[in-house]
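User: My collaborator sent over this chain with a note saying "see what the structure looks like." That's all I know about it. Can you take a look?
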Amino acid sequence: MTSLPRRVLRALERFHAARPWDHNAHFHRWILRQLPRRVGSALDVGCGSGDLARLLAGRAERVHGVDADPAIIALARELTPTGVPVTYTVAEAPAGLPAGPYDVITCVAVVHHLPFTQALQAFRDRLAPGGTLVIVGVSLERTPVDHLLGVASIPLNILMALLKNRGRPASRPVSMTARTRPADMPFPEIVREARTVLPGARLRRRLLWRHTLVWHHPRR
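Assistant: Without extra context I'll predict from the sequence alone. Here is the result:
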């Protein structure tokens, strides 16, 4: 989060601890708008409890969710109804990703945990010609634009927390088993590296401390 006085940060942390909401799920509908109406196969890297994978099943004939956390994969399997064409695998990205090829690859708030260049190369190599890669990422705040967007995200973040929790504190805390660490690459460096590996990739800073990347694999 952007630089603020320590007292203000502590107050915001207390507020959001009582009213948690899923910032990543906020981008799921946007992700679907980047994709064709129907595809054959999709891979969701860092699938967590499978929320996006199950949404992708509405577009794809088959979906493969991959996560390094066995507990969260077990939960994803429990939450996925019988008949929904999603399978889940415990695997470390990028080396352990299934070979593909896939018509769609998605990765939400995960790539900053991975060796960045190798991860993009692995996604590229597993994407079918004509396929679409969509990444929602987290970057290190460094430039004035980063800090401005961070400050602008604070009131939106508070409003979303109030709306999603109907103004009240959550009845029970939300637990996460996934490992997390802060981003260590600033956005301009992400853009340079991404366009080296993925020529023509479209990257954009977003509110709520995220950025997006969309790349279409050229048809041979």
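A starting point for your reply to your collaborator: The chain is about 35% helix and 25% strand.
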